[in-house]
Specification:
The chain is mainly beta and about 375 residues long. Helix content is about 10%, strand content about 40%. The strands form 5 sheets. It has an 8-stranded antiparallel sheet with strand order 1-2-3-22-21-23-19-20, covered by helices on one side.
Length: about 375
Amino acid sequence: MRTPRTRGAAARFGALALMVFAAANIAAPAAAPADTPRTDKVAPGLEHIEIRRGDFGRGLGPDRWVIHVLVGDPAKVRLALGRARDKGVGTETTSSIARRRGALAATNGGYFRTDGPYRGEPAGIVLQGRKVLSEPYHRRPGLAVASRGARTRLAVVDVDLRAEAVVPGKARRRIDGINRPRLDNELILFTPEFDRTTLSGPQGIEAIAEKGRVAAVAEAAGNAVIPRAGFVLSAHGEAAAWVRTNLKPGTRVEARTAVALRPRPVFIPDFVIGGGPRLVRGGQAVAPDPEIYTPAFAEARHPRTAVGVRSDGRVLLVTVDGRQPETSVGMTIAELAALLIELGAVEAVNMDGGGSTTMVVRDRVVNSPSDLTGERAVGDALLVIAR
């Protein structure tokens, strides 16, 4: 792995673009043309690099890539989480979120539900303002970000969550999920950040809590309105029996959550967003856990989005186009990890990819999303904003 040298920005980023893949595990024929990099200064402290790799002189090819890299100076830009429609459910294109929030650039964010009334609901941890808005999913890691203070800081973390509904001095029960569809025998917490109502069906019971007390209990109704100063506990089966027994109008009730991040960041995150798998730890590639990530996901080439941080603190946002053999074939997880290491990442994580992979610079989509319909509406986006 090469570590970037401390020198002028133009020379540093030019050298970075030229060296990409020089020592990567993505082997190219000896006669293959050199990478074709193009660097653009988006704003003070933010560079956009486009890299074309492979032989583009014939119609289709198995080894050709179009890669886009944003390199951000942590003292001059910050990273923010943009939710679709500023809610916990629903979708919106990355370019629309970026434009709405006045971002210099953006990529798509975490995994999300792609259909049904809960379309856009995150499939992974979302922690914002120290409040849990979505629980971890299948032991996938998260990206922790802090932009307060003089510099933006990132960390890739594993997330442990404990959530309980508590009737002080009387009873408590595990909360099975947060701001997502309710399954059999589950107790789900809905917060006001989710939407106006729970969007749930009538096969259960919902306790509406406001200002620390149960305001109402609705049986076989569903779709309860979520108080702005409260929450809703939505239950089915065994969990519904617990609600009937313990939550009556006027009862004091709390929704308690406790989050542990491993390794513990040296900063307090502004937000944590789910991704996975972890690509790089301590400058070394990390193999994906086969119990979590199937070969079809990890070992096949797909469009990819990733986030990394270099040893000097510079932020990397990366997209690799895919599923377009005439221009870019995508990458496996191992190939993506090799790319992030070549770009200088010491920590990195994969984000949602496939048809979601999008990079926006100055309100323009600069990559080539793979969906035939063009840019996909997503659940959230990572926004690069000037300090």
